[in-house]
Amino acid sequence: MIRAAFFLVLLLMASAISLVTVRFQTRELFVKSEHLKSQAHELDSEWRRLQVERAELARNARIDSLARTELHLVPVTPGRTVYLQQAAPQPPAGQGGQP
Q1: Phi, psi at residue 17, to the nearest 5°?
Q2: Phi, psi for 24 (deg, rounded to 5)
């Protein structure tokens, strides 16, 4: 009878220790989970901010304005277009088709 009681006490102690360990691990995982949720929220906010900034930078009016003011570019007109004529390629000497 004493052995059975001693065995039950050992089982009870092991169970209590495992319960404390599991609760501690659960709390650690909960804290990590909350931290990761917070980090995900921050990254989502940053992503949205970057999307808005990219849209602003890619606006055609802004690009046109920067091209005209900073790069001093002007629109292309037919009068300012230069056409280059490329000469027909000359066959290498000795291969002109004559024997």
Answers
A1: -65, -45
A2: -65, -45
Q: What is the mean pLDDT of each run of 10 residues along the chain (99 residues)?
A: 92 96 98 98 97 87 88 87 84 64
**Cα–Cα nearest to 47, from 18, 29, 86, 55:** 55
Instruction: Report the pLDDT value the prediction gives residue 96, as an integer from 0 to 100.
Output: 56
Say what the pLDDT of residue 97 is. Answer: 54
Joined tokens for residue 72: 């001093």
State pTM to two decimals.
Answer: 0.51
Helix (H, G, I), strand (E, B) or coil at 11: helix
Distance, CA of 84 to CA of 98 (rounded, Å)? 31
Which residues in 56-94 are b (16+ Cβ under 10 Å) and which e?
eeeeeeeeeeeeeeeeeeeeeeeeeeeeeeeeeeeeeee
